[in-house]
């Protein structure tokens, strides 16, 4: 008889799960079965592991988000017949994600280009790199929607007004990861400095001559 167990069920995407198969004789038979176990996901063989005086274990973190029908097939040996375990339904759900946002310059001044970088990562025990898109927001106003690349996306702007802006990033999720929203980043935009110059159209000039004085800011 073959017994099959899972170390974590349900699990989440990217989480390592150990499947353990134990083979034991059925009375009046006795002894210790040898040989190998095939771990299967439906009709797909995942691994073939040898029995060595005890159970066989197979570990994986690559199961997709779905319900998986896992079985363990004992190949038998010279003393024991083959057998297959009862099916174990391994449920793999989406992993949680966490989002954060940073600024290239804070505080900045009016008209200065500022780059906001969003980073989205998996929350343990989930693992992997989230894909999809993030929404950059200023309060409730959407600034841009950008696609993640290796878990990051960048948005640059020089159009923020003189004020304090509450910048957040909203991750839209994908087939493997749940949505998340970053903590707010307060981006302070100060007044920009100015430089003033003055020129004369004629210098020196003479009494009664028209002179144009130009100020440039």
Ordered list of secondary-structure elements with their pairings:
Layout: E1 2-6, E2 11-12, E3 17-23, E4 36-41, E5 44-50, E6 56-60, E7 66-74, E8 83-84, E9 88-93, E10 97-103, E11 108-109, E12 114-122, E13 133-138, E14 141-147, E15 152-157, E16 163-171, E17 180-181, E18 185-190, E19 197-200, E20 213-216
Parallel strand pairs: 2-9, 11-18
Antiparallel strand pairs: 1-3, 3-6, 4-5, 4-7, 7-8, 7-9, 10-12, 12-15, 13-14, 13-16, 16-17, 16-18, 19-20
Descriptive report:
With 217 residues, the protein is mainly beta. 0% of the residues lie in helices and 51% in strands. The chain is built from no helices and 20 strands. It has strands at residues 2-6, 11-12, 17-23, 36-41, 44-50, 56-60, 66-74, 83-84, 88-93, 97-103, 108-109, 114-122, 133-138, 141-147, 152-157, 163-171, 180-181, 185-190, 197-200, 213-216. Strands 2, 4, 5, 7, 8 and 9 form a six-stranded mixed sheet that branches. Strands 11, 13, 14, 16, 17 and 18 form a six-stranded mixed sheet that branches. Strands 1-3-6 form a three-stranded antiparallel sheet, with no helix packed on it. The protein is rod-shaped, with a radius of gyration of 33 Å. The relative contact order is 0.17.
Mean pLDDT level: 97
Low-confidence parts lasting 5 or more residues at pLDDT below 50? none
Number of helices: 0
Q: What is the oligomer described by this structure?
A: single chain
Helix percent band? under 10%
How many β strands by DSSP?
20
The N- to C-terminal Cα distance equals: 89 Å
